[in-house]
Amino acid sequence: MFEVVPEKGFTTSEKRAYVVLEDGTVLQGKPFGYPKNSVGEIVFNTGMVGYTEALTDPSYKGQILTFTYPLVGNYGVPSYMNKDEFGVPRYFESDSIKVEGVVVYEHCKNPSHWSLNKNLNSWLYEEKIPGVYDIDTRELTKKLRVKGVMMGALIFDENVERALKTIKKAQRYESKNYVDEISVKEPKTYGKGKKKVVMVDLGVKYNIIRNLASRGFEVIVVPYNISFDEIMSFSPDGIVISNGPGDPKILTTTIDNTRKMLEEYKKPILGICLGHQVIALALGADTYKLKFGHRGQNKPVVDLTNEKCYITSQNHGYAVKDENLPNIGLKVWFKNIDDNTIEGLLHEEKPIVTTQFHPEASPGPYDTSFVFDIFLKLVEGS
Prior knowledge:
Strand order of the largest sheet: 10-12-11-13-14-19-18-17-15-16
Mean pLDDT: 95
Number of domains: 2
Distance between the termini: 46 Å
Shape: globular
CATH superfamily of the largest domain: Class I glutamine amidotransferase (GATase) domain
Low-confidence stretches: 1-5
Radius of gyration: 21 Å
């Protein structure tokens, strides 16, 4: 049992805070977390649990996250020091909160759970992340579904006009390379095994590393802009290109290196989420921005090879276009049942597999963890 950290941050509910959207919409709420103004792309997640994993997911870098579930924080926040056998924190997807801000209807001030170390408010305060609660998140989500995700701000000084000007001057989400901010700077190794896999880090989640290491891989996590020759210096038995934030087309260096990798490397390659998009772009496909993206733990996909349906965990705002895929050697593996977007690709000749969804989940259902088993079999058979 961990010692519960005392309450930090705002101590009165009389203060006001605002969620301001670039279209002029203003929602009044109350502040929690760290008292600072914040700007980012406002998105929503439909998951009912898993807020510690979601808030530390590197794919949310640059975004203000709205939780649609009305109560967040009821089981508190555990300690980063609770780690698995690979030295990876069990309940987080990176070493810090990655979102720019948090919007909820209600946050639980007095959580209860055997592993809790502090409450949500204290955690946000310690990591200097602002939050606004008492917001009608249903209304906000409906607006984003109708108009699409947009830039916005969380403000605590009641100067709405200044906030709107700041939003308009801020760099657009799709124009910034957030991967450069969160990718490792030097290679780092996890696990021990006879098979070695290089993980190109675009914002990798800890549970992807855990899933590979638990299957007997030695996982070498490398910077997103590492050259193909540097990757080959590790003599990998397989390569994984990870998830991450932002528009994949910004990652020109990674796309060029991946193109060379796809041409010259004969062993298995796995792409997950942003990595899936990068592989598609490197092969000659195109990507586009979704209206409001897929962010949640209940997203249904169908495997076109056997017509089985799986419920998946997802967090992305871009997708691969289905044009021209047969001409570049790709066929669709999975499709999203809700909107028919591409959720996975297979190469017709090479051992290349990709998924747009997160087979490692965390949070979410583990229905599709078999993707890692498929990758393992490809590596063992190569």
